[in-house]
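Quick one, tokens below:
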């Protein structure tokens, strides 16, 4: 039970520190003026930083996947190009 309490306490401190760094400098309070409500707000900001980072990573992965899949469908098949037809009925190529 003590280990769980210690883990939760350290997680809250870590998330509050992340929330503090995510707060604009002019809105930050010194550590001595923190209240339980302020700490809860900072922990919430820290959680939002993590969740937004995960969403952003997923969005970038999807964009990269779409870009690669789009390139593959638009590309010509690999290998040398086929030689031009020498059929006498074909019109001369436009130059």
């Amino acid at each position: 039970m003590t280990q769980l309490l210690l883990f939760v306490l350290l997680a809250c401190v870590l998330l509050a520190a992340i929330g503090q760094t995510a707060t604009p400098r002019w809105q930050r309070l010194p550590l001595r003026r923190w209240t339980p409500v302020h700490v809860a707000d900072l922990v919430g900001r820290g959680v939002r930083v993590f969740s937004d980072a995960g969403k952003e990573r997923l969005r970038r992965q999807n964009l990269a996947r779409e870009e690669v899949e789009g390139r593959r469908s638009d590309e010509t098949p690999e290998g040398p190009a086929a030689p031009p037809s020498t059929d006498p009925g074909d019109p001369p190529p436009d130059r």
